[in-house]
Structures are given as structure tokens and as C-alpha cells.
């Protein structure tokens, strides 16, 4: 199931659903109190004292729901915190063990992308649950009191759902463009700050600033288009929902009341409940669009969530006999780091590796640890080709002042 909520404690989710049910009863209480008081006044039933008692009970019930809502909102934020920490734990573990992504990509995933996941996915998934419960309760109460008018409202609320489907793909495309530009901007800022001292030596700070600002401009333009598309689709859905889910059903209800088929209290009650027919449905569709906008980001997060540490590969070997590096070379785009590296290591050997900065000492050690694969050559351990395989606990590596000491 492609949801972030499965990374929250189950008991908190069940408690959230329970409190959401209670929170959703607020509008139902208002609708029932309104119906009772209007029907009593219209038919001259009961007394003024009864109206006061009804209003008092309704008010006290709403106050009780208000206090429950304090705990409900706290629980929602607590669940978001739990999910965030769980996701970040998986992502950090993935980045440290996997090391396929660059440091900048990892920083972007942990900061910008995770904030987008929190605001556009986690929060919206929780609110979709709440709005769904609100809709179900309102419809159930409406069917009990006037099934005909409630069914009319329900049918008309389906129309916005068909409309929003035509815009989902467009929103996802705008989101992907913004995500790409945001990653480029983050990289430009990181490069600029890291190279600020070097740039100052050549007195070309304006050029660096201009490049960063241009990247920021592209990112902000993409964000503006993304937000505008989401907002425009939301406005369209809201307008359609108001026409088909409010005005038309209200007209039918007025006709039923004119023919004495329902009372004023029932009509006003259904209209009051109609807020929970329309608003939750519109809100769910809008939040669904926001959730779908995070699909590309969530696919990257999912890689981290599905990553498993291969403990068997990291278990220390008790029978280490030899390490042999043969014709090892490594290339990066447009650059050869090192070529034709050969050496042998026996048990208890200490190897001191000294080379100029940028030669590829860290890269060489990463190859020995199995973190990355060489461009050519091989690494043999105990006369077995282990090139690209993880043997972390076979070696102890000390790095200090550009000197690398490897102890086998």
C-alpha cells in the first residue's frame, strides 16, 4: 500500500480514527438542535423552556467536542512526528550504507523533499481519513431524516470527482518540474557557498550570485505554476460543487417543503449537513491531487524504505589470508582518478597510502569496502574475486591529515 501512514504506530492510528468520529459529530449536533427547535417553533409544540433546554444541551455537547478536539489535533501532530522520524531513519540508513546518490541529492531528499512529503502527503492522508469519516456520518444521519433529499445531495456530489480526474496528470507534471528545479537550486546554493572563498580570489562574486539567482528564479517560477494549477483546479471543483451539490438540491428541498412533504426543520437540517456532503468531498479531491503531486518524491523515499542492510556481507571473517588488488582503475566523467593500481596485503600487514589531494584515495578505499565498483580491475580476498562486494568488517581504516592507514 503506497501510504506513509503504515509507518505510524497502529494504536495511534486507531485512536486517531476514534477521535475523528467524535470530532465529526459537531455539525451533526448543530443540525439536530436546529431541526428540533425549528420544528417545535413551526408546529407550536413544546414550550420556550424546552427550546432553552435543547439549546443548552447542544451547547454543552459542542463544548465537550471542543475539548476532545484539542487532544485530536495533538495526536495528529504526534503521528506526523512519528512518521517523519521513521522515514528519516530509513533515509539516513539508506544514504550511509548505499552511497549511490550524491551528497547533494541526499541533502535535498532529507530537507526539501521530506518537507514536501510531510505537508503534501502525510498531513493530507490523515485529513482524508477525517474528511471521509465526516462524510459518512453526515450521509448516514441525512438518510435517516430524509432519504430522498440526502440521495439527491449524494448524487450531485459525485460530479466534482469526475471533473478532477481530468487535471490530476497536469498537476503531477507541474510538481515534477518544480521538484527538478528545486534540486538544481539546492545544488547551486551548495556549490556557491562551498566555493565562495575561491570565487573571491578571482573577484567574480557577481557572476556566482547571478547564477544562483537565476536558478532560484527558475525554481520559484515552477513553484508558482504548480501552486496556480492546484489552486485553479480547486476553484473549478468548488464552483461546480456549489452549483450541483447545493443550489440544485436546495431547490428540490424547497419544492418538497412547499408541498408539505418535509418540515422546515428537516430542510434546514439537511442543508446544514450538506456542508459535510460538499466540503469533505471537495477537500478529499483537492488533497488527493496534493498527495499525487508527491509521487515522484515518494518513489525516491520508497527506495530508502525498501533498502535492507546485508548483515551477512558485513560479518567478520575469521580466516583472512590475503587481499590482492589487480590492475584497478576508476573513472569519473571526463576524468581518470587512478589507473593500474596493484598491491597485495597479508594478515597483520599495515599499508600506508599517501597521494596528492584529488588522486582518489577515498574512492580506492570505497572500492575495497565494496561501496562502489571499479571501472576495471578486480579485488580478490582469499583468492576469491570479491569486486564490488561489501567486506566492511574485514578491514579497519584510519583516515587523518590526508594519510590513509589500512590494517588487514
From TrEMBL:
It comes from Lactobacillus psittaci DSM 15354. The chain crosses the membrane at residues 13-38, 50-72, 133-159, 236-258. The keyword Transmembrane applies. PROSITE patterns: ABC_TM1F. This is ABC-type multidrug transport system, ATPase and permease component. Keywords: Membrane, Transmembrane, Transmembrane helix. It is found in: Cell membrane. One of its GO terms (molecular function) is ATPase-coupled lipid transmembrane transporter activity.
